Amino acid sequence: MQVEDLIVEVRDENLQRVWQIDAQFLTGATFAPKTNGVGTWQVVLPATVDGKEYEPCTALRAEGAGIIVTTPQGVLISGPTDYESCEQTPEDPAGTWTIQGWSDDILLDDALAYPDPAIADVSAQTKANDVRTDTVEDLLIAYVSANIGPDAPSARTTGTFWASVVVGTSLGRGPTRTASPRFQNLLQLCQELVADTNVLFRLVQNDDDELELEISLSVDRSGEWRFDIDNEQLQSTQHGSGAPSVTRAIVAGQEQGVNRTIIERTSTASLAAEAAWKRRRERFVDQRQTDDTDELQQAGDAVLADGAAPAGFTVEPSDDIDVLSARSALGSLVSVTIGDTPVTARLNQVILTITENGVYTAAVIGDEDGTDWEGQVNRSLSSLGSRVSNLERNPVGFSADWAVKGGPTSLASAYENVWAVGFDGGGVLDGESNANGIVVGADGVYEVEGAQRGDGANVYVTLALDGSRTDLETHADGLFTHDHSAGANNYSTSSYIGRLSTGDIITLGGPTSTNLVYASSTLTGFIKARRIG
Description:
By secondary structure, this protein is an alpha+beta fold. Among the domains are: 107-217, 3-Layer(bab) Sandwich (Phage tail protein beta-alpha-beta fold); 243-307; 403-531, Immunoglobulin-like (Sandwich). The protein contains ten helices and 36 strands. Strands 1, 2, 3, 4, 7, 8, 9, 17, 18, 22, 23, 24 and 25 form a 13-stranded mixed beta sheet that branches. Strands 26-36-31-34-33 form a five-stranded antiparallel beta sheet. Helix 3 runs antiparallel to helix 5. It is globular, with a radius of gyration of 24 Å. 39% of the residues are buried. Residues 368-400 have low confidence and may be disordered.
């Protein structure tokens, strides 16, 4: 593929195509769509050209702007701008902008699947869960349409990109499944529906400047696309593998105590891995929102698939191999020879990088976390988020007293942010009396979770007790855990389980000198607490 084969357009907040980026300014760009997930993109553009404003750069930096990348095979990726930074030097006083963004699939990640999506008001929901049974394709279309598409209430979509989401007519593809979301992340729901199937989905801008939910089936091209160092179809490979994180899923349905429905799920692969690694790894899966056996089995199978022994490959094809530039390649089964062993696996991500020497293509095949430690962290965070989200959606006993804040919008002081939106809770928790945190209303044992995105080096973003990280870390009657990440788009997570007293304030933030990203609450993190005893 040549740089000239790529058409990179800038869209405005109304999804109208307003500029095309000149091929000569695409050096440094990266476009990385992802199978059934959120892809990323980056371009590096001059602020001025020949002393005049470079208007595509200015337009792409505007709020609500985005990008559309088209190859000869169709749209490779489209999506909104998310972050920008400028570097100025004496040689380049006007500066050079690095602009980053997501694929439009991020709009699925922005949304929750309401229990009664026909009602926009979360306080007026009339159903406990949105229970549906149908083929995977029918369910994808139904849930997306009901929550962010044509069937969603206008009060929820007006003024957002969701108002431009369209869905097609189902062909009834995929197995029959049951789902019952209750404020579940919509992207996560879609991913669970397609798990262990050959159904693919993505949200992408079409020729009518709508954001279309595209559904297709993966194709077995392993007989056609065989990548091998020896046959000179590969320039390089990187591969890795590891032990499984789950071999047996213990799934619990409705009721409590001895009356609760509990099943165990295993698979041929999980039992084989258990025998090979000599480790029986059990995982409890809380599905208290349902007693449907099929749905309990699906949940267990999804956890087994997520916890399977990772085995992934990153490959760089030879210059004369151009199949990976095709959008249709994503999700395909291909054959890769690792050492002397041919392996058939799914092509999960295509990465196009443009340098001064041309367009380079790489591909992530198999489990992406097989070679990427960041992927391992992200998958763990996703799993944590799923479990926390499920507890929020389906409370029992003390679990009903969740207080949640989303944001933040600014940094008040050390380890204390200002949180503007997202409160939901009550009972013994007074989450409204302090904008910087959640106020404990009664002595007891509490579970607290926090996550936030940082920007820069050594971002120690963490939970704290009234602005003091040390006080929470050293609390005599509790267990504190924390990990920190550096760099844009990375998350720090922390948790606390233990006793708290009336008037204690749980805060979340970083040192006052730390740069933090303040954007959509769905991107920057959360702080939440509930009483458990």
